[in-house]
Every structure is written in structure tokens, then in C-alpha cells.
Amino acid sequence: MQKQLSEQTVLITGAGRGLGAALARAFAREGANVAINYRQSRDAAEALAEELGPKAMAFAADVTKPDEVEAMIAAIRETFGAPDTVVHNALADFSFNGDDRAHLDRLDWASIARQGETAVGGVLHLIQALRGDFAARGHGSIITIGTNLVQNPVVPYHDYTAAKAALLAFTRTAAKELGALGVTVNMISGGLLRTTDASAATPEAVFDIIASQTPLGRVTTPEELADAALFFASPWARAVTGQNLIVDGGLVFG
Description:
single chain, alpha/beta, Rossmann fold, seven-stranded parallel β-sheet
């Protein structure tokens, strides 16, 4: 059975900034050991670890590279013990600016593949590196980060949305296979968040439009989405797997 959050080690990929940092703060607030993964944002990740205290540490790895993921997991094992929960938040470089997005007439397959390599390939490598630990313990939790654009592609970010749709499918197939090990696999899908590095390029008028169309009347924050991850990682979600929880203030009903 999944441990209480205060007893867990939680690995968050892409946690040096933005939503990842909010996720790290949420789990640290609940007393978990927090492994802060980063690819390029070393200074930000180490500053965050210092902010969160002795139960947090930054670990470098490009999740698209299996050998780097294996080395990172080994380092986490040595420091905190193998992760009980993994939140796969890492995102290939992307800017949410509808005016600057790639339209179909100039979109190339490499852009879609690059997004998929991080979204789907990254969590595949994490599962492979941790499968033995999960099997030995008989429990674990994997949480992927999706997008409500799959249900409502109001701005057609073709490459990003296609990769997240593939990640949703992979989340469900992984839940089917890993259930036998006592591992739950779920997705949290947000909309536009106010504000992360990725959404900083979004015009203010777009935030206003989304807020006006959302039942709660505001744009969701990274902190609000991060709190939803606590549920999936907790023993309260022990019978929940293969699900996609949309956290966007009710903009999209999933």
C-alpha cells in the first residue's frame, strides 16, 4: 500500500522552475523527500533545493537518455531511497504563443517527435529504471502531466498536443501493465497556467478570455494544479489508476 506523503521519496522531473517547482514545494510542504530533476536549470534547481531544506536535493538528467535516467535513479536511491512517487513534468522546450506557433503548412515531424521524446520517452525510461524497485515494494505511483488541449484544442499547438495525447494513451496502457505490481499511473491535465516560463509569452488578453470562460472565473495557478498531484500520490488514491484529472477551473469538462 502506498505510504503517507511524509514517508515518501518523490521524484519530479523538470522541477527547476515553473510548474515543476510548484510541485516540489507542494510535496515538501507535506514532508516528503523531494528529488528535483533538471536538465539545464541547474542554478534554479539547486536554489529550490536549498529553499526546501535538507529533505530536498537537485539531480541532473536528460530524461530522453536512458543512461542518464539510470544514473539519476541510482543517486536518488543512495541519498533518499528509491522514489515511491514519480511526477513526470519535464517538457521539451516550448513557448505558448499562439501567434508564433507552427502551422500545418510549415510544421515538421521532427517537432512532434521532439515533444514525444520527452513526454512519452521520458516516462518510459523512468518506469524502466524503477520497475525493479516498484516490484520489490509492491506499490508506487506515477503521475504524468498532460493538457486540456487534448479535449479542447482552442489553440492548435499541433506538436505539443499530439505528444500529450500520446502520453495520455501511454499513461493508460502503463496503468494496465503496472497494476499487477501495485503501481498506479494517472495523469493531471492543466490548461494555461498563470504564470510559468512556458506561458510567459502568452498575451494578457488570452488570460482574460480564459478567465471569463472558466466557471471559477480565474486562470488556474501552478500551485493549484500541484495540489492535485498530492491526491494521486497519497494512499487515498490507492484504487485510482489510468485516470486523467483535468485541473483547469472547469474550463473543460472531461
